[in-house]
Amino acid sequence: MATFSYLAYFPVRCSSNRDSYDPNKQKLNNIKINGTSTKSTTKQVEAGVTTTFTSVASVTANGYMTEQKVRQNIPTTKQSVDHFRQGIAVEGGVGYRQRVVIRSYEVGPDKTATLESILNLLQETALNHVWMSGLLSDGFGATHGMMKNDLIWVVSRMQVQVDQYAIWGEVLEIDTWVRASGKNGMKRDWLIRSQATGQVFARATSTWVMMNRKTRRLSKMPEEVRAEIEPWFIGKQAIADDVPEKIVKLDNKAMYVNSNLKPKRSDLDMNHHVNNVKYVRWMLETIPDHILESHQLSDIILEYRRECGSSDIVQSLCDPDEEGMLIEGLKQQENRDMNLMNGFSLAAGILEGGGFLGFEKQPLMYTHLLQINGETKNEEIVRGRTTWNKKSPTTPFSSM
Hints:
It is globular and about 55 Å long. Strand 9 (171-181) and strand 10 (185-194) form a beta hairpin. With 400 residues, it is α+β, with helices and mostly antiparallel strands. The model is unreliable at 1-61 and 348-357 (pLDDT under 50). It folds into 2 domains: 74-244, Thiol Ester Dehydrase, Chain A (Roll); 245-334 and 361-392, Thiol Ester Dehydrase, Chain A (Roll). Strands 5, 6, 7, 8, 9, 10, 11, 12, 13, 14, 15, 16 and 17 form a 13-stranded antiparallel β-sheet that branches. It has a two-stranded antiparallel ribbon with strand order 1-2. A two-stranded antiparallel ribbon has the order 3-4. The protein has 8 helices and 17 strands.
């Protein structure tokens, strides 16, 4: 496996629990701060119910609960139900299922969920799964044993297959679980289905390895960490583990090149690295508009190589496969208005007539590369491959 240092930090969707009861909530008035009991309390009576608010200051790492942990309310034991996140334990208690609603800000112009939204939901449910396990430490997805050994999870490969995109307001159920991957890795899988019909909309799988947080080098899995996570492994797959086809590295001869991409402040996570969902956005922006209008993404494979920082200048490369090349050539011919047969455009006839030559009905594939423009050499961030199917006339809200 190639050495890389891409950090997989995840955004967390916040929700208020001020007026709800959580059985896992700590008794704040019993928390000791630097060896003393916190007795600074305020009582407020609302509708006949007395509520006690306790002031809790941040503490040093001396074994006592910090204000951050109090606010996050991270469980210290395994939970079977997460009322606030609408999550439950499945698969005999080791899998996780969460119910979500597609929000207005998670859909695109066609009122269906964007790929970025899907990726964010996958990340969120993965974190919530670890949250319910009772293994979550201070790190994002890191167990107690990992924090003790200065280890973090990094994703090396991810694949998402989409059969149908959820629509605005639709309720989804997302299942996620983990399984073994060699001696030092782990795989995490997902299934996304419609809560109303039970139809599976999408499948995803990912491979994770451990990295030392300080040295930024890949690490073996300590036995104490293995003992933590092995009881959670499930022997099933969302996507078959076929031998992955190598994604070729593109060069500057690629058909589409988008250079001088500079990360914005909003693109960064709390560790000042570009969030992985932003990578996908940079990739998809190189796909021609006419393909985005007539096709929808059905499969994406990502192979991560290294991190991207706030000061890096990124270049996005994209190249179609042979069938895509042919369609692009016909599109350019149409744009040049090269009409044949008494004003009939051969390109338009093929593209708009459903592909009477046959190739237009086949999925289109594009190879992608994000790289950092360096003074001496360009360093790879992530390689990718996307597959696109012709949009169905019955696609919800489709203009086709």
